[in-house]
Specification:
263 residues, alpha+beta, 2 domains
């Protein structure tokens, strides 16, 4: 007679491999039970169905972009290639965007991978821990001679991605229950940012100079480095006004977790 562990492994193998022949220890225990295959199929289909529901919850933009039938097809392919290793289903879909990027698909399917990337970034932003953020008073209390060496730290809820398709525009329309624009490639790759205030998620395209400034901050560049990068993209006389505008927007949006003076 098979041990309990052997029976459990047989059921698991049957579910993951979708091959009822692997469940012979279970079948041996239930000889004469005509519905044994049917009962095993309940577990097999239930496993795929539940994980598809998990993915659909995490990838709402992708589900709407490709439609229910196509989404189910993509989900089943991902589930077959990635047996669940997570105790927390929240993290099961972490590899879906990379999985879609690796598939030998046409260009519009690559747009689906970009939408998956944005969907996951939104989820990460929502789940990020709460933090204190820099206030206008914090900036006003900084001595003028300290500014060049300052380093800003971005909030952990900030997620930045780049897209070659208008997936950001589509996801915003979905979130606002507005008519969804047609999928189209962008003339130039576009940077997008996802952020959060309390429990509300925001996402928008970044102008090139703002994206470049945030790149410098994320790379632990100093305030002087950020200004230097802006001066490469704007006339010198416009840099001061632009960095002031950006700082005001970042503080108002709670993008800056803290500011560090040069030691």
């Amino acid at each position: 007679m098979s041990s309990l562990a052997e029976i459990q492994r047989a059921v698991q193998n049957c579910v993951l491999a979708r091959d009822l022949s692997l469940a012979s220890p279970v079948i041996a225990l239930t000889q004469g039970a005509a519905s044994v295959h049917d009962r095993l199929n309940i577990y097999r289909h239930g496993y795929v169905s539940r994980l598809t529901d998990v993915l659909r919850n995490d990838y709402g933009g992708l589900s709407i972009l490709v439609g229910d039938a196509k989404f189910s097809e993509l989900a089943e392919a991902y589930i077959a290639a990635h047996p669940s290793q997570e105790f927390n289903a929240r993290w099961y879909g972490a590899g879906l965007a990379d999985f879609l990027h690796r598939r030998p698909l046409d260009s519009e399917s690559q747009a689906a991978a970009e939408m998956a990337t944005l969907d996951w970034a939104i989820g990460l932003c929502f789940d990020a821990p709460d933090e204190t953020s820099v206030t206008p008073d914090d900036l006003q209390n900084i001595a003028p001679e300290q500014w060049p060496g300052l380093r800003f730290v971005l909030s952990r809820c900030i997620e930045r991605r780049r897209f070659a398709w208008n997936v950001g525009e589509i996801r915003r329309a979905i979130d606002r229950a507005e008519p969804v624009p047609a999928l189209r490639p962008l003339q130039d790759e576009q940077a997008w940012v996802v952020s959060r205030v309390d429990t509300k998620i925001f996402h928008r395209a970044l102008p090139p100079d703002e994206a470049a400034a945030l790149d410098r901050i994320a790379a632990q560049g100093s305030f002087a480095d950020v200004c230097e990068r802006l001066s490469e993209m704007r006339p010198d006389e416009a840099v001061v006004a632009r960095i002031a505008e950006l700082l005001h927007a970042w503080v108002a949006s709670r993008w800056l977790a803290r500011v560090c003076a040069e030691s």
